[in-house]
Amino acid sequence: MSRPRLAVPILLVGLVASSGCAATPEPTPPPPVVALLTDFGLGDDAVGLMRGVILERAPRAQIVDLSHEVARFDVADGARLIAEAPGVYPAGTVFVVVVDPGVGTARRAIVARLPSGTMIVAPDNGVLTLAIERHGPAEVREVTERSLLREELSSTFHGRDVFAPVGGHLAAGVAFDAVGAVVTDWIGLELPTARVEGSAVVGEVVSIDEPFGNVWTNLTPAQLGDAGLAPGDRVRVVLGAASVDVPWVATFGDVPEGAPLLYANSRGRVALALNMADFARTHGVEPGVTVRASAAP
Predict the structure, then answer these.
(1) N or C end of the chain: which has fewer CB within 10 A?
(2) 3.50.50.60, 3.20.20.150, 3.30.70.260, 3.40.50.10790: CATH of 33-178
(3) CATH superfamily name and code, 195-295
């Protein structure tokens, strides 16, 4: 006697008729980068308020700090600190620079667009001199489009009310052309340069590299070479009232701890240091002091 057959259900799973391949989703673009440089410090809410203004206009923005420790009111120091950044940050970064001792006066607010597409929002006081010199040529426009600013304008806080909102709008995709008219008479600084005088190079201290106390000058290694010096030589350096003989070496560890040295810093300029100590405080050196370098006797 034969056994009855059992009905076995057939399940068809996941059979989908398709006439083509599914479309590849568009990649999400990276967030726009906004980099801040000010002389505000971080002791109050000024930088935080600027961040909020930017985020209100560009919610996806990645806001980073280049520095908020520019020497107070020192436009030349701001120019020095913004000079390298456009070549390091991604193309298209929006920099907001606020070193603005002339805030509330007739000085203009400007935006410079570099060939890479990077834009720098700043007061027209010379703070962009070195950045444009190094990464330009630049097209510069005056900020005259009122809708890009905050509704209420303080006469003393254009970082919040002018520069930050403009930077935020640009990061959010507002066209550079919408900022205002092109200007060609933007202000440039006449910054001091070092010079070779016979067998010596003469320049000045441009900054103190804190917190280490290294002394950065505007002399170049090439100028030392033009004066007859070479790595490995001992160099007599006169800084104001201080005079010190130092070896020209590559890095701090090339001399004993506490010993002085002359080296090329990360910006390609001549610098002075004490290994594991503070050269500036030890020798009473401040920015602006004249520097003279020649062969040690």
Answers:
(1) N
(2) 3.40.50.10790
(3) Bacterial fluorinating enzyme like (2.40.30.90)
pLDDT value, residue 277: 98
Instruction: Name the burial class of residue 151, with classes exposed (0-12), middle (13-18) and buried (19+) by CB atoms within 10 angstroms of its CB.
Output: exposed
Q: How many CA atoms, within 13 angstroms, populate the side-chain half-sphere of residue 86? A: 30
| Phi/psi of residue 26, nearest 5 degrees | -65, 135
Could you count the other beta carbons within 10 Å of the beta carbon of residue 24?
6
pLDDT in tens, 19-51: 556 677 788 889 999 999 999 999 999 999 999
Q: Exposed (0-12), middle (13-18) or buried (19+): which is 295, by Cβ within 10 Å?
A: middle
pLDDT at 117: 98
Which residues of the chain are modeled with pLDDT < 50?
1-2, 4, 6, 8-18
pLDDT at 180: 98
| Cα–Cα distance measured from residue 94 to residue 163, given in angstroms and rounded to the nearest whole number | 11
CA angle 243, 275, 72 (to 5 degrees): 75
Q: What is the full DSSP assignment across 194-213? A: -EEETTEEEEEEEEEETTTT
Whole-number Å distance between alpha carbons of 90 and 156: 31
Domain boundary assignment for the chain:
33-178, 195-295
CA 30 to chain centroid, in Å, comes to: 21
